[in-house]
Specification:
The chain has 181 residues and is an alpha/beta fold. It is built from 5 helices and 5 strands, in the order H-E-E-H-H-E-H-E-E-H. The radius of gyration is 16 Å and the shape is globular. The structure holds zinc ion.
Length: 181
């Protein structure tokens, strides 16, 4: 982000870490469920934490059950509105195109993510869906918050599947575990 954001980033640093730690907690729980460990939380400017979700694609057999989508649905329910104006979404992994689209649709103000995703990342890595001026809603974003923790979780999840020590269901019959996220 631009230098103009520097001061507020500094001020928000602790809040970002706190929220990301909660998202990481969700990611760990996803791993225990046999899901690719990705967690997300949404913070409302006045109400604080209004949504907390983890990837549930395998559990629900739902290709849209990414942590961010589930968190956005929860937040909309909590607010009784699809407009999540002023809210910040924290995800342990860079959002994919589907989630970046939902972030725009829900008018979320700010996105913070942990690890970058070279395969599916749609904020900075593969696509730049949140590029200012691209759509009629601009989203501030920041990546790399607790990045090591987030990517270590994912790496050890897939290592567990390769070693057969993880209960990740049906994984051995799939072409490549990394393609499951
Ligand atoms: Zn996604």
């Amino acid at each position: 982000m631009g230098d103009a954001q520097g001061v507020s980033w500094l001020r928000d640093e602790d809040a970002d870490l706190r929220a990301m730690l909660q998202a990481l907690e969700e990611a760990r729980a996803a791993s225990d469920d046999g899901e690719v460990p990705v967690g997300a939380v949404i913070i409302h400017p006045e109400r604080g934490l209004i949504a907390k979700a983890r990837n549930a694609k395998e559990t629900l057999q739902d290709p849209t059950a990414h942590a961010e989508i589930l968190a956005i649905c929860q937040a909309a329910e909590a607010l009784g509105s699809w407009r999540l104006e002023g809210c910040s979404l924290y995800s342990t992994l860079e959002p994919c195109p589907m989630c970046a689209g939902a972030i725009l649709q829900s008018r979320i103000e700010r996105v913070v993510f942990g690890a970058s995703d070279s395969r599916w990342g749609a904020v900075d890595s593969k696509l730049r869906v949140l590029e200012p001026g691209l759509f009629n809603h601009d989203v501030d974003w920041r990546g790399g918050v607790l990045e090591t923790e987030a990517s270590d979780l994912i790496r050890s999840f897939f290592r567990g599947i390769r070693d057969g020590t993880h209960k990740g269901s049906q994984s051995s019959s799939r072409p490549g575990p990394e393609s499951r996220k």
